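Table S2 (text version). Query chain:
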Amino acid sequence: MSFLVANLPLEPVFVRKEFLYNGKKGHGEFMKGYWVSVKAQKHRALLFETLLENGALYDKLPIEAFVHDREGDFRFEQSDLALWDIDTWFITTIVKDALRHLDAKVRIGNELVGGTYICTVDQCDANGELMPTCASIPKEHKSQNILALENGQYCSMPNNRILWTEQSLTKVQGPPDFEACEEVYFSNTLRNYCHDEKWFYEGDEEQANEEGKEKGKEENNAKKENQQEDGILGDNKWQTTQS
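Corresponding structure-token output:
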């Protein structure tokens, strides 16, 4: 996990030159370069550092500033290409082997646009503090997947805006109706511990026995209640017959 800056794969890109001049000139022109790193500033867009062909190392550009095809249709803006800002100062980058070079369908605005996976930027809160930002809340946490879109631009999108297409593994039939994860899961419980010196222990046997006794009591009580109800119903039926 890195503070502020993390490495990126050496992706060849073209920089839209108007971003090198704060929009004052360079429109319609491009400069070749290679991504070097990505920067996280809390509550701001991801920012990319690029080694340009003239030797300059230029940073703090948003994903909208980059294309991989100079003849593409650059119809999407920053807010389309990156759905969320970063929630924290701490990020990590990873190329997920199972997704490497996979094609995908990405929801950009109201369109499903084809794209190819490059890498993922993930985030967390420093030192494991309890929920100081959205990065620690399951429903709000966002991974950002970097993809090259078929229109020539790049995007940075969370998992719930991407459908991965691999003929032998997936069958894409439209967006699923899943709900966002809201649970925090734990494996450590009292049943996983044993308060003796056994090396190959099997959990807290005493607690397990107590739970077994309680469960047995509940089952016995349920049986007694059912028997009582059967007896009452039987008496009522007999009385009705006699009358």
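Notes on Table S2: The chain has two helices and 13 strands. The chain has two domains: 2-165, 187-243.
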